[in-house]
Specification:
Elements: E1 2-4, H1 7-19, E2 24-29, H2 35-47, E3 50-55, H3 65-70, H4 75-85, E4 89-91, H5 95-98, H6 117-120, H7 124-139, E5 143-147, H8 151-163, E6 169-173, H9 193-198, H10 200-212, H11 218-230, E7 236-244, E8 260-268, E9 271-278
Parallel strand pairs: 1-4, 2-3, 2-5, 3-4, 5-6
Antiparallel strand pairs: 7-8, 8-9
Bound molecules: pantoate.
Pantoate binds at residues 28-30, 58, 61, 128, 131-132, 150, 153.
Length: 279
């Protein structure tokens, strides 16, 4: 496995792959790798001749400086996980390499970045779009892999690819969960033991909500989910929205959308967890 820090080194390693017409599977990450990431890498390994993973904590997508400071960084462990899964190249650039100058680009996503995460983390998706477009430029992948846990991010990236007319296939992969249902996230390692014990209530409530869809209106179900989760004093729901699964427009009635998604953000002490469920 090659570890490279600059775009130039990356390009020179990938040149032969491109010249030989071989496929490149790309898994962008911010490190602190867990099974959710290694599963993306495993799928990329199955579907491509060459697999590239990036490890880069992107400052432009953090609207909260504390969150950026506290974001877990575990490079050595990350590299050995990449190696085990058969990644060919890890791209681990510095901030200066990705942003030699301030990126002032503003992307227009219509409604997609105005709701839910977009509303609560202003500028977050613009930062994601900035880094993903730069990484796509550097890697020029055939396919790129993202987890469905970040449901809204996946929708924004699909839109970005269409908008910039990029020749890359976006593959959304199922959320990987702990045995108790908690969606895997790099932030889980920041939870105290008590917070960790409380957190599976988020997924448990979402699964139960799916079974209650027939009995409840959209509004009733939204209220029920929030009350259930907030009944644990360590959990504090920031939002729970039920929206059209494609456009992410909030819905008022089940009849408005054949497929709906429920997206949630929960503050657990200083840690913010997100999850979602399809209805
Ligand atoms: O999902 C993430 O880890 C990040 O948002 C991504 C896509 C790697 C961009 O920094």
């Amino acid at each position: 496995m090659k570890i490279v820090n600059t775009i130039e080194e990356l390009s020179s390693h990938l040149q032969a792959t491109r010249d030989g017409g071989r496929s490149i599977g790309f898994v962008p990450t911010m490190g602190a790798l867990h099974k959710g990431h290694t599963e993306l890498m495993r799928i990329a390994r199955e579907q491509n001749q060459v697999v590239v993973a990036s490890i880069f904590v992107n400052p432009t997508q953090f609207n909260n400086p504390n969150d950026l400071r506290n974001y877990p960084r575990t490079l050595d462990e990350d590299l050995s996980k990449c190696e085990q899964i058969g990644v060919d190249i890890v791209f681990a650039p510095t901030v200066e390499e990705i942003y030699p100058e301030t990126d002032t680009r503003k992307f227009e996503f219509g409604n997609l970045d105005k709701v839910m995460e977009g509303k609560h983390r202003p500028g977050h998706f613009n930062g994601v779009a900035q880094v993903v477009s730069k990484l796509f430029d550097a890697v020029d992948p055939t396919r790129a892999y993202f987890g469905q846990k970040d449901y809204q991010q996946l929708a924004v990236i699909r839109h970005l690819v269409e908008m910039l007319k990029l020749d890359v296939e976006i593959i959304g992969c199922p959320t990987i969960r702990e045995n108790d249902g908690l969606a895997m996230s790099s932030r889980n390692m920041l939870l105290t033991p008590d917070q960790r014990k409380s957190s599976p209530l988020i997924a448990k409530t979402l699964f139960e909500a799916r079974n209650k869809k027939e009995q409840f209106s959209v509004k009733e179900l939204m209220r029920w989910v929030v009350n259930q989760i907030n009944s644990d004093p360590l959990l504090n729901v920031e939002y729970f929205e039920i929206a059209n699964a494609k456009t992410l427009e909030p819905i008022g009635n089940w009849s408005e959308s054949a497929e709906a998604v429920g997206c949630i953000a929960v503050q657990v002490g200083d840690v913010r967890l997100i999850d979602n469920i399809l209805f």
